[in-house]
Design a protein that fits this description.
Layout (H helix, E strand, L loop, with lengths): L4 H11 L6 E9 L2 E6 L3 E6 L3 E2 L8 E7 L2 E7 H5 L11 E7 L2 E7 L1 E9 L3 E2 L8 H4 L1 E7 L2 E6 L1 H4 L5
Parallel strand pairs: 6-8
Antiparallel strand pairs: 1-2, 1-9, 3-7, 4-5, 5-6, 7-8, 10-11, 11-12
């Protein structure tokens, strides 16, 4: 008997179940910047195929994308954060996420490892941490001598911000 997609996704999340005091994050990259996304919020990670443009929409919306037979809105993290377009191939990967009762595909340049970060590594967002990036940052972690912003999925897909 085949297991459903929901069961497979549940198995992935269970495999990355967080031990007490640790939170698991995917690292995602836009240009040379690294960000974190909670493993528990991600439904799937996939290579980007064809994107159908949507006329007269927000500039951050790249278009529609087919995700396992379901049409979802693809949003460019690069554009959302105001990062300039680089010369190399950009936004090759997408992460399937749900926010505000809708499914989205968040376009990123690449996906890194899963990090298990202790709550003790969490730090407050400093006042000088301004700009578009801070609008979409939920938490900030000090990890391997750098600060890693953790993205707030609900804010990323709230286009009134």
């Amino acid at each position: 008997m085949k297991s459903s997609t929901k069961e497979k996704q549940k198995d992935i999340i269970e495999a990355h179940k967080e031990p007490s005091g640790l939170t698991n994050y995917f690292t995602v990259f836009v240009d040379k910047n690294v960000y974190g996304l909670a493993v528990s919020e991600a439904q799937t990670i996939f290579r980007v195929g064809r994107i159908t443009p949507i006329p007269l929409t927000y500039r951050e919306v790249a278009g529609f994308i087919n995700l396992r037979g379901k049409i979802v809105v693809a949003v460019s993290l690069r554009r959302r954060l105001g990062v300039a377009q680089g010369e190399e191939r950009c936004e090759s990967f997408a992460i399937g996420l749900e926010a505000h009762g809708e499914n989205f595909a968040l376009l990123v340049d690449r996906v890194g490892d899963v990090l298990a970060l202790p709550t003790s590594a969490r730090t407050e967002i400093p006042p000088h941490f301004t700009g578009r990036q801070s609008l979409f940052t939920r938490d900030l972690y000090h990890f391997e001598s750098r600060l890693t912003p953790i993205l707030d999925v609900n804010k990323l897909f709230n286009f009134s911000i």
